[in-house]
Specification:
The chain is mainly α and 519 residues long. Helices cover 78% and strands 0% of the residues. Helix 1 crosses helix 14 and helix 23 packs antiparallel against helix 24. The longest helix is centred in the first third of the chain and has 29 residues.
């Protein structure tokens, strides 16, 4: 297999055998790949910015448009429901017109929605803008990890496919900063500017996407081997490695090894036809396991309560004793910084210590943080006439630690993992299904958070999230194998093994040897 053969030559170098000179030197990160994946990952800024900016904008929308808490819940959470349409359509579009033009399509739709929200004159108009924005966001959030995974070399895939999560966090931080920057303007202007500024990243993304290459794996599925070879040469360390990677992809698609033409005839089902049947109706045992793992990690990511903390952080801090609007917005900026700093740490660890170890460690930290937050909010709730500074500090620290542990583990690994494990023929629409479930789960919790804490107290709500996070840890431990050091073409056989954990130690040891020479 392409990348795997190069990893094995590095392995043999450690054991003392002679190897080609090209594999013994320290491997550098390909700047062309990095540039392309950064541009693709910018699509995730759209999701992050909307989440961040709505956190503060809703404080002013509520007062300006005179809406109640139910409408606030709908306004914040409905975008996730709308984005299901975009992510589902995006999976099909991705297979039909390619990864690159799907990114452009998402940027155009998001631009239209952001412009409509910035010009909204009433709640109904604002909701129409949310609908259009949600579709664009659905496109953007599913395509970034797919494109990045398909372009990335195996040994740096963890780092590169975590970049969409980095940009989500960067977008959230930009949204918080936008809240703070415009908060002192008149109430009927500030929130419109906050939302309207979202057109800027969508324009930059649309222009940048036109300069990116198409995914080599999608090109091979279309029989365009010459174009795919050209992209692989630019994204590999040598022409020999590019040819080996191309051979792997051709094998996965079903193109004979002897085919050396630039264009070959491929199956009529090269644009994603029949994928849903293969995923949901007649899956093989390995595909069924892949689907359970991918959908499970997406659902549990949002069931942990992360989006409620991001969207409702001003309310959480208000419940903890912070009252002034500017102080609330300042505290939310701290949340954004915490998420951003820890996701940067995670990006450099994914290819060094592996997905599984980071995921389990981060989830354990989330459980402890949620228990601490639930305890602090319960104490404050039971002592409304007292200002318990230690409990206020505990709540602030546990919110920051919760988003930090999320960013180390479940945040990036959800996107990395789901973009890696699907077979090529199922990848785009498989990831789209995972993203759709992610957005539905997020929407359900975002649209019911206020109602939940009114029914079971805000402390009790976070104890519930801690329970869900605990169940998540056992799900990850039982069902998610380590994927570090594996090519995309090897994933299906990895999930066909009956005992994943029996090979985990061997995989980890081999990965350390490979990465010691390659990263």
């Amino acid at each position: 297999m392409g990348d795997r053969n190069f990893e094995k030559t590095a392995d043999s170098d450690v054991s003392g055998n002679s190897v080609p000179a090209t594999t013994t030197k320290k491997r550098r990160r390909n700047k062309y790949v990095l540039g392309c994946t950064v541009l693709a990952s910018m699509s995730s800024i759209l999701l992050g910015y909307d989440y961040g900016v709505m956190t503060g904008a809703v404080l002013f929308i509520k007062d300006d448009l005179k809406i109640n808490d139910t409408k606030v819940e709908i306004l914040l959470g409905i975008l996730n429901v709308y984005s299901v349409i975009g992510s589902t359509a995006g999976g099909r579009t991705c297979d039909w017109i390619g990864r690159r033009y799907t990114i452009v399509s998402g940027a155009v739709i998001f631009f239209t929605g952001a412009l409509m929200m910035g010009l909204a004159t009433n709640y109904a108009f604002l909701m129409v803008g949310r609908f259009v924005t949600g579709i664009g966001m659905g496109y953007a959030v599913m395509i970034a990890p797919v494109y990045t995974a398909e372009l990335s070399p195996t040994l740096s895939r963890g780092f590169l496919t975590s970049l969409p999560e980095v940009f989500i966090n960067f977008g959230i931080l930009l949204g918080y900063v936008s809240n703070y920057a415009f908060s002192r303007l008149p109430e009927h202007i500030n929130w419109r500017l906050m939302l309207g500024v979202g057109v800027v990243p969508s324009v930059l993304l649309g222009i940048g996407a036109l300069m990116m290459p198409e995914s080599p794996r999608w090109l091979v599925m279309q029989g365009r081997l010459g174009e795919a070879r050209g992209v692989l040469i630019k994204t590999s360390e040598s022409k020999e490695e590019a040819e080996l990677r191309l051979s792997d992809i051709k094998s996965a698609v079903g193109i004979p090894e002897s085919s050396n033409e630039d264009v070959v005839q491929v199956s009529k089902r090269s644009h994603g036809e029949g994928v849903w049947k293969e995923l949901l109706i007649r899956p093989t045992a390995s595909v069924r396991r892949v689907l359970i793992a991918a959908v499970g990690i997406h659902v549990l990511q949002q069931a942990s309560g992360i989006d409620t903390v991001v969207l409702y952080s001003p309310r959480i801090f208000e419940k903890a004793g912070v009252k002034k609007k500017n102080d609330l917005l300042g505290a939310t900026i701290a949340v954004g910084f915490s998420k951003t700093i820890f996701i940067l740490v995670a990006t450099f660890l994914l290819d060094r210590i592996g997905r599984r170890r980071l995921l389990l460690t981060g989830t354990a930290g989330m459980i402890v943080s949620l228990l601490g937050l639930g305890f602090g909010l319960t104490i404050i709730d039971h002592n409304p006439d007292k200002k318990l500074m230690w409990a206020i500090v505990l709540c602030i620290i546990t919110v920051l630690s919760f988003v930090g542990f999320f960013s180390i583990g479940l945040g990036p690994i959800c996107w990395v993992y789901s973009s890696e494990i699907f077979p090529l023929r199922l990848r785009a629409q498989g990831v789209a299904l995972g993203v759709a479930m992610n957005r539905i789960t997020s929407g359900v919790f975002a649209m019911t958070f206020i109602s939940m804490y009114n029914a079971m107290t805000i402390g009790g709500t976070f104890f519930m999230f801690a329970g869900i996070a605990t169940l998540s840890w056992f799900f990850f431990y039982t069902l998610l194998p380590e994927t570090r050091g594996k090519t995309l073409e090897e994933m299906e056989s990895l999930f066909a093994k009956p005992m994943w954990r029996s090979n985990e130690k061997e995989q980890g040891n081999r990965g350390q040897v490979e990465l010691g020479n390659a990263v």
